[in-house]
Amino acid sequence: MTGFSVHQLDSRILGRKRKVRVYIPPGVHPGGDPPPALLIQQDGQLAFTGREDTLRYGSWGLDEWIARLAGEDGFDAPVVVGIDNSPKRRQEYFPMTPEFDLYEQLLLEELLPWIRETVGFEPARDRTALMGSSMGGIAAFGLLFRNPDRFAAAACLSPWFEFEKNRYVREVLRPMEEKPPVRVYMDSGIRDWRQLDDGHRGMLLTRLELLRLGFREGEDFDWLVETAFPAEEELRDSPVKPDYRANAMINQHTEYHWRRRLERPLRFLFGKRT
Q1: pTM (2 d.p.)
Q2: What DSSP designation does 78 have?
């Protein structure tokens, strides 16, 4: 298996099939020794360039970014396994619901064994990361903090910590007393489709809790608030559809903006560490 492929995971836990998309970068061999790094991507149907024609704001271009960085010395180019979301996305991605518990069980008990059997390698914990945006960002965060023995890091782009009035921060993160041995990246914009702040105040509340727990910026924690907006000329040469370009100039909660910010989290997750 090389390049990009699409599969159906027949889930006993969910009682239905779930689409899984796999990207293997150039020069990466799943059967090699040591096995490659692994990135588990939420909202897999939005991550790769093959669906640009059907997406309003284009994709994340995750495959293009990884292929671009793969040749750099010290960049540990990962195999990417993107799992599509479902009609229950909001419930499955919020780490305080029964649906999230089932989604977590799907990843741990079905997806990881499927990667071993179908993709052909056993991912090492210290080279396995999660990534997602919006509700997918808080899902990646929750999966990491609940399973530090299985995952080493997460990148959370525009994570929706403000969901249910920052309930996850208030009821789960704030009572925590022990720092898990993981690394965390977070970012956000300053304006979303509601003309509000793209959730960055919720992200900053989360930052304070991470610092309280002992995370150290520049070491096991990185974050960014993006204040820049694209110019009209930039959008003309982008995958954003013409009818949505005006919105992309004022709304940073889109795949186009996550694509613009993607280099930094990828380097944090898989780049050379000093």
Answers
A1: 0.97
A2: P
Backbone φ, ψ for residue 102 (5° rounding): -70, -40
DSSP 72: S
pLDDT along the chain (274 residues), means of 10: 88 95 94 93 95 93 95 93 96 98 98 96 95 98 98 98 96 97 98 92 97 97 96 93 96 97 97 80
Cα separation, 180 vs 145, whole angstroms: 7
Using CB atoms within 10 Å of the CB of residue 174, give its burial: 0 to 12 exposed, 13 to 18 middle, 19+ buried: middle
Whole-number Å distance between alpha carbons of 228 and 252: 9
User: What are the sequence ranges of the domains in the chain?
Assistant: 3-270
Strand boundaries in 25-83, DSSP class E: 38-42, 79-83
What superfamily would CATH give domain 3-270? Alpha/Beta hydrolase fold, catalytic domain (3.40.50.1820)
